[in-house]
Amino acid sequence: MGITRIDCDILIIGGGAAGCFAAVEIYKRSPDCNVLIMEKAHIERSGCLAMGLNAINAYIHPGQTPESYVANVEKQFEGVIRKDLVYSIAKGLNSAVRDVEEMGLPIEKNDDGTYKMRGKRSIRICGERLKPILAEAVCKTKAQVLNRVVATNFIYDGERVLGAFGYGVRNSNFYVVKAKAVIVATGGASGIYRSNNAGEARNLIWYCPWNVGTGYAMGIRIGAEMTSFENRFIALRVKDVHAPTGIIAVGARSKQINAHGEDYLECYYKHLGGNKCLTHHRLLATIEETKAGRGPCYLDTTTLSVDEEKRLKEDFLNMNPPIILLWAANGMNPRTKPVEIHGTEPFIVGGHCQAGYWIDKDRRTTIPGLYAAGEAAGGAPKKYVSGSWVEARIASATALEDIKGFPHKKIDDSLILKEQERVLSSLNKKTGVLPHEIRERLQKIMDEYAGGISMNYALHEERLLEARRLLRCLKERTNDVKSENNYSLVDVLECIDKLDVARVLVEHLIYRKETRWSCYQARLDYPEKDDKRWRVFVNSIYNPDTDEIRMVERPLDR
């Protein structure tokens, strides 16, 4: 194994939608900039959009404004959002979409040339090749891409991020990438909770199974301030294949029905006084129907016409082909049988919900030299892919401005040797705990004590305190984990990252003593929303010297 040293101006960690867009944006603004993308898969088919996308869910249609967009997001998230961040995203949504269309993304249009609406704030696209299109745009720049190199930690001298370390999965090289600025665009975290599907199907989940929270964990380990981890996301999805329900509910206008064929959302609306329910209420109503013995629950596709069914299948082929294979294998037809739905395990994401780095309006984190965009950036939910592009644009512009005249700082060799030893330590063990044992133990703890599927996502102080204790014990066992090859080594590193994120998550869940987001963050011991006390951001800062997590509160108004 060798050490490969690379110098660049800006390092982008993560080659997903935000990372690729950031690289293209930097070269638009500064053609002579030296940019490097570090991606643990391959930028052509990596991240949560690897299979594609059939709609852009954040767009400002005529008659709407950035202000109305912010108001909707604020309502959906029970009054707790960073309005400054959401507003800056809303202002840039349409121009970012046009930029990606110019890269080659096919967007459906009306006869007058306007984009075809799918919902109030979304447009229809043919996005199966979205990632290849973004990757091709990157390849047209001078950006250097390190595919199949796993980021392991930031290079941090106690004052500023100076780059990042990485490990080459296929060549066994240890990378030391020195940079004047680092943009973290690694997505959110999956695999922390036990999933619906077991065994060989465990990775058949809603979110990309390889987005394991590495970007979060790297920031946590150097003391970056993180926000809103307790605002978990639990998706309402098609059972088993976890295909998106919005394609059916919004695209095909299908209703949610219970096992008796009743539109249970209408009943839920009446319970709320006739108001349309929020996104998380759709999940809550489904869970309550199942608990009451009126499940399974479905999306009623039996009212579709032949043409509508065909269109539905085309939409899924742009985003989730497995559901088409499921229907074909079982001789099913959505017009003859409704589609069963259920909730997934919880995920920690900054795009649908708002977990991530605490940032300023220019996307600087609390650590100098480090910037965040997309799912990794906290405080701005419902940004989706177009919002991630906007954040990538903002972070890129800020990083370019901040590094003007900034010299490369020398990296102490002791930092390199320390990280190299940490990364490779599991390869040198002849006996020890296997990574899948750590992963399964972590997921069992989180499922049973921190509000997973088996607990109907409900939380309680005593169980959370036990989760805290058990996770601390599990952290000690990671010193004994062993890896058998490079791929097993990546598994080890991912388990450690998941565990570091899980520990912070549990502290957030303990700290917010109310129920603000049904299902996402539901406390049995504090079942009511408390606006007087808890209209605040719950943030955390990890101290690597003491292994303690300090909780802090930040006000809403910025």
Write up what this structure looks like.
With 558 residues, the protein is an alpha/beta fold. It has 16 helices and 20 strands. Strands 1, 2, 6, 7, 8, 9 and 16 form a 7-stranded mixed β-sheet that branches. Strands 15-10-19-20 form a 4-stranded antiparallel β-sheet. The mean pLDDT is 94.
CATH superfamily assignment of the largest domain? FAD/NAD(P)-binding domain
Portion of residues within helices: 25-40%
For this structure, the CATH topology of the largest domain is FAD/NAD(P)-binding domain
Classification by helices and strands: alpha/beta
Q: What is the number of domains?
A: 3
Briefly say what this structure is.
This protein has 558 residues and is an alpha/beta fold. The chain has helices spanning 17-29, 66-76, 83-103, 130-139, 214-221, 246-251, 264-271, 279-291, 306-317, 322-329, 384-402, 413-424, 435-449, 461-477, 486-511, 531-534, and strands at residues 3-13, 35-39, 55-56, 117-119, 122-124, 144-147, 149-156, 161-168, 174-184, 226-227, 236-238, 256-257, 297-299, 339-343, 356-357, 370-372, 458-459, 522-523, 536-543, 548-555.
